[in-house]
Amino acid sequence: MGGMRGRVESVNVGVVRTGAWTGDKERTAIDKRPVEGPVRIGSEGLAGDTVCDLRHHGGPDQAVYAYSTADLDFWSAELDAPVPPGGVGENLTLRDVDCSGAVVGERWQVGDAVLVVRLPRIPCRVFAGFRATPDLVKRFMRAGRPGAYLSVESPAAVTRGDPVTVLDRPDHGVTVAEVMAAQAGRPDLLPRIVAARGDLGVRGRRWLDARTGG
């Protein structure tokens, strides 16, 4: 995978927030903010981070959420307001890494950690409330820039400036953006995504099997 190299722009952990915009969730840690110094990434996520909605977030298949600076720039322009690192709820803000076009099962070396691409991020009303943009869920899905949820193969501490290298990539070529499109109402993509079933993780396989009868 020569030439596929980026770096960590920011490492972000959540600040627990409450407010009417959280709806029935009552509390959320979607507000991720940059932290200085090394942060350990383990099988369940980043040290110091918080997951409030354990039904839909967190766990081994969604231990880390990564988003690219290019996609943050897109949203800054789209929303006509700065969207800084952590601004879409990501743990790792990465430069020169295509998080939304990442192939399911792709393995990344991030500093000394090894992470594996599993799933796209599917937005919810809390995300729209956090960004104070009522139609953001629909716009986020339409934009096809989901970022990537990752599992942790090799835990390690990660810090700003660490290199990011794509170690290897499955031949099936199914991207997290394609998985999001299928989840958003593109059943024509399901036969293609079946080829990536083994790389989707437990959550992804449950969703795919429910849709295909597998």
What do these coordinates show?
By secondary structure, this protein is an alpha+beta fold. It has one domain (5-170): M1 Pyruvate Kinase, Domain 3. The protein is 23% helix and 30% strand. It is built from six helices and eleven strands. Strands 1-6-5-9-8-7-11 form a seven-stranded mixed beta barrel. The protein has a three-stranded antiparallel beta sheet with strand order 4-3-10, with no helix packed on it. The termini are far apart. 38% of the residues are buried. The mean pLDDT is 92.
- Number of structural domains: 1
Q: How large, in whole angstroms, is the Cα Rg?
A: 16 Å
Average pLDDT figure: 92
Structural class: alpha+beta
CATH architectural designation: Beta Barrel
Element-level helix/strand string: EEEEEHEEEHHEEEHHH
* CATH class category name: Mainly Beta
- Helical element count? 6
- The third-level CATH topology is M1 Pyruvate Kinase, Domain 3
What distance lies between the first and last C-alpha atoms, to the nearest angstrom?
Answer: 33 Å
**How would the global form be characterised?**
globular
| Percentage of residues in DSSP E strands | 25-35%
How would the blueprint of this fold be written?
Blueprint: E1 5-18, E2 27-34, E3 39-42, E4 45-46, E5 64-68, H1 69-79, E6 92-95, E7 107-110, E8 113-120, H2 125-130, H3 136-143, E9 148-154, E10 156-158, E11 163-168, H4 176-183, H5 190-194, H6 201-212
Parallel strand pairs: 5-6
Antiparallel strand pairs: 1-2, 1-6, 1-11, 3-4, 3-10, 5-9, 7-8, 7-11, 8-9
